[in-house]
Amino acid sequence: MSLLEVFGDSFARRALLEAVMVGGLCGAVGVHVLLRRLPFFTMALGHATFPGVVLAALLGISLFAGAAAFGAVVVVVVALLGARDRVDDTSAVGVTLSGAFALGVLLLSAQAGFSRDLTAYLVGSIITVQVGDLVTTALVGAAVLAALAALHKELVLGAFDRGGLAALGYPVLALDVVLLLLIEATVVTSIPAVGTILAVALIVAPAATARLWTERLRATMALAAVLGATSGVVGLAISLQWRVAAGATIVLVAAALFAVSLVVAPRHGLLARRPAALVPVAATTTAAGQGPTRAG
Q1: Residue 278, domain member (yes or no)
Q2: CB neighbours (10 Å) of residue 120?
Q3: Which of 7, 36, 97, 228 could crosslink 206 through cysteines, CB 3.0-4.6 Å?
Q4: What is the total count of domains within the chain?
Q5: CA distance 183 to 85
Q6: What is the pLDDT of residues 47-56, one digit of tens each?
Q7: Residue-wise over 246-285: b if at least 16 C-beta within 10 A, else e?
Q8: Residues 207, 210, 211, CA angle at the centre, nearest 5°?
Q9: Whole-structure pTM over 0.85, yes or no?
Q10: 161 contacts 34 by C-beta, under 8 angstroms
Q11: Which residue, 164, 165, 188, is CA-closest to 176?
Q12: What is the band of 81 on the pLDDT scale with cuts at 50, 70, 90?
């Protein structure tokens, strides 16, 4: 079956557009997640938005609007706690985000007879996205990428030298909050495609793969976006062809690209790191013998 046949239906074309936009956005943002060593935060953030989803379901409003609003509150709390001298960043993330998830479970258990299906929120349902979802993804994605471009130098300097950033007079805490909010917006935006459980993989895997192929930051971000979009397209095509879960397939494709790159990447792959002992002895001897000849 050709790609034209796979994506022949309108729902498949909507899903394809969503996969490209979400994959590209996650890949670009993922580079900053790796620079700041925030994969754990990103994973926990998806769970921390759960109370917002429960409240939104109870109030009859958009689940993703509830997740975004509550996630923004959690991000601010994490940033403020992490700024205190006696509370390290990991503790702030662990306590706040796990506590938020526990609050969501408590709210859910307190509602007798609550039967709203939250499966799509947990694992995604990209084939059911509507035009409104595409518009939301496009607007949020454009805003996030514009913010990353505008604050590129400051965010990169903050990742490598926070002291230097503060010495130059930049508001370090405010920049931290902005970056965490951008990550939160990316996580919430990726929920229709892969859900909260798999969002961290789509954010981290393309960025980690791109870092194996290039050391230039801007090139890494561009390549990560391409890899994320490619994972979305290939994973969606496989899921439609074989009728398997789309979100899981997209993430597995992203993971497979990382695994292959880990082996074959020209400078940082496992094959490129073969020890010198594997070089043929004859070649070494010949090279050594040619040294004095050239010198003479």
Answers
A1: no
A2: 15
A3: 228
A4: 1
A5: 24
A6: 788 888 888 8
A7: bbbbbbbbbbebbeebeeebeeeeeeeeeeeeeeeeeeee
A8: 90
A9: no
A10: no
A11: 165
A12: confident
